[in-house]
Design goal:
It is built from 4 helices and 7 strands; from the N terminus they run ααββαββαβββ. It has 197 residues and is an alpha+beta fold. Strands 1, 2, 3, 4, 5, 6 and 7 form a 7-stranded mixed β-sheet that branches. The protein is elongated, with a radius of gyration of 19 Å. The model has no long low-confidence stretch (mean pLDDT 89).
Length: 197
């Protein structure tokens, strides 16, 4: 059966498009993150594009920035509401996406012989990464609007847009990773929220 709706199969849908756009925005800002992490020698950590990944791996061996859907941590991925009538295939709905961004400090990254110094460098690194993602990347005028590669609610040549995007919540602690969840990894989760209408 073929569905005759204006949902293009040659482009990503809203869900996929917002994940890819958020990942791209983080990668785009890596030079500023690395400058903040290495400004004074207290958190000597450098992220590459390969460390900004989609999904939340079971095992973390190095520091990662992970972009996920609602996922197993928070659960809720999207809320869809009817915004107005009449509805069509391209209008009448508002979609609010919740995108957790997981920050993991690799167990061997920032390692020192002094356990108190090790704890301090990981704590400072998490603070600097969270500040960067919150203020420089998303809770800024430039970060509030993300163009997407989807056309669910628009028609060519236009594309969908994730609006009023911002970090709404930050939690920190340790994440259970590795075989049998036996490895505790310093972690933070930033919840990104945005609307598509």
């Amino acid at each position: 059966m073929s569905y005759q709706t204006p949902y293009p199969t040659d482009l990503p849908g809203l869900d996929e498009a917002r994940l890819l756009a958020i990942q791209a925005r983080i990668v785009e800002a890596l030079p500023d993150l690395n400058a903040a992490l290495n400004r004074d020698g207290q958190t000597p950590l450098t992220f590459t594009e390969a460390q900004v990944v989609l999904g939340d791996p079971e095992t973390v061996t190095r520091s990662l920035l992970c972009v996920t859907g609602g996922g197993r941590h928070e659960g809720l991925d999207a809320e869809i509401e009817g915004a107005f009538l009449p509805r069509s295939d391209r209008s009448g709905f508002r979609v609010r996406f919740f995108t957790p961004l997981h920050v993991y400090i690799g167990p061997k990254d920032l390692l020192t012989e002094d356990p108190l110094r090790y704890a301090q460098t990981r704590e400072l690194a998490l603070a600097r990464i969270c500040d960067h993602l919150r203020k420089r990347v998303f809770n800024s005028q430039q970060g509030a609007v993300l163009p997407l590669a989807s056309q669910e609610l628009t028609t060519a040549p236009d594309f969908d847009t994730l609006n009023d995007g911002h970090i709404a919540q930050i939690t920190k602690g340790r994440a259970a990773k590795g075989p049998g969840a036996t490895l505790a990894v310093y972690a933070a989760t930033l919840l990104h929220v945005g609307w598509i209408a």
